């Protein structure tokens, strides 16, 4: 039985005059502990599919299930991390990382201790009494990661969480996120436009075509890359080979879109 299962998922947006199909016939299985990246051109429905998996959007067609439980609304065991950190500026960092637990009614000494231990793991324990405007963008994204992990989700959905960061910070955060998720045995789906990021962080890459969004091809990442942290993976010969393969497939997709 698949950990996460998508069956014939489709999404069509209707107006008075038109019907626009954003996604069509998406069937996909994700194993527990797997890191999968969704990659493709703008407009292929990657973020829409992530919202469907999270339960924020109901698909027009098909179904989504997590551990054989149908997902029809936001689920407490699905964590969602976005481009923006969305920390509350009037709350301290400690209050921000505990807000999800409060909303779920799960705030207790055990969960608080676990969350604070995550802050130690990512090197930000000394920021607990600070406010978001006192932290850099990379630090705030690390806080957002802890806030997401605090509720102990079974799967994390990452919607371009590094895209607003400078390149050096982005590379460091890729390593930290990858290592943290691996150590805690988390399943993750990453939406990205960055080929290199997808290769360096993933076990498998799902490439989407557009108009409407469909699965075009799936790329398994080699074991040589999977066992390395993202920064190290970028230095391996397999990285360049895979980058070229995916680049050529994206070129074909874009060429098909213009014909």
UniProtKB/TrEMBL annotation:
The residues covered by the ABC transporter domain are: 4-235
Organism lineage: Bacteria, Bacillati, Bacillota, Bacilli, Bacillales
Question: Keyword annotations for this protein?
Answer: ATP-binding, Nucleotide-binding, Transport
The record's Pfam families line, in alphabetical order, gives: ABC_tran
Which Gene3D superfamilies does UniProt cross-reference here?
Answer: P-loop containing nucleotide triphosphate hydrolases
Q: What is this protein called?
A: ABC transporter ATP-binding protein
Output the InterPro entries linked to this UniProt entry: AAA+_ATPase, ABC_transporter-like_ATP-bd, ABC_transporter-like_CS, ABC_transporter_ATP-bind, P-loop_NTPase
The organism of origin for this protein: Fictibacillus fluitans
The record's SUPFAM superfamilies line, in alphabetical order, gives: P-loop containing nucleoside triphosphate hydrolases (SSF52540)
UniProt GO molecular function: ATP binding
């Amino acid at each position: 039985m698949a950990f996460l299962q998508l069956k014939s998922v489709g999404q069509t947006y209707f107006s008075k005059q038109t019907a626009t199909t954003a996604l069509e016939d998406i069937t996909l299985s994700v194993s527990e502990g797997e890191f999968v990246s969704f990659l493709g051109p703008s407009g292929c429905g990657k973020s829409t599919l992530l919202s469907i998996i999270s339960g924020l959007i109901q698909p027009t067609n098909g179904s989504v299930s997590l551990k054989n439980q149908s997902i029809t609304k936001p689920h407490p065991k699905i964590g969602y991390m976005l481009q923006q950190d969305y920390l509350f500026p009037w709350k301290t960092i400690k209050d921000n990382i505990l807000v999800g637990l409060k909303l779920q009614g799960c705030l207790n000494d055990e969960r608080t201790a676990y969350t604070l231990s995550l802050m130690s793991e990512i090197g930000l324990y000394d920021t607990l009494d600070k406010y978001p405007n006192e932290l850099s963008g990379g630090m705030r994204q690390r806080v957002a990661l802890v806030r997401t992990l605090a509720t102990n989700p079974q799967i994390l959905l990452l919607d371009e969480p590094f895209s607003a960061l400078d390149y050096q910070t982005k590379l460091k955060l890729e390593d930290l996120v990858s290592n943290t998720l691996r150590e805690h045995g988390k399943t993750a789906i990453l939406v990205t436009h960055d080929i290199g990021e997808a290769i360096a962080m993933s076990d498998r890459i799902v490439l989407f075509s557009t108009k409407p969004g469909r699965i075009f091809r799936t790329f398994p990442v080699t074991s040589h890359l999977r066992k390395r942290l993202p920064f190290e993976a970028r230095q391996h010969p397999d990285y360049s080979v895979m980058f070229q393969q995916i680049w050529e497939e994206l070129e074909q997709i874009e060429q098909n879109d213009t014909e």
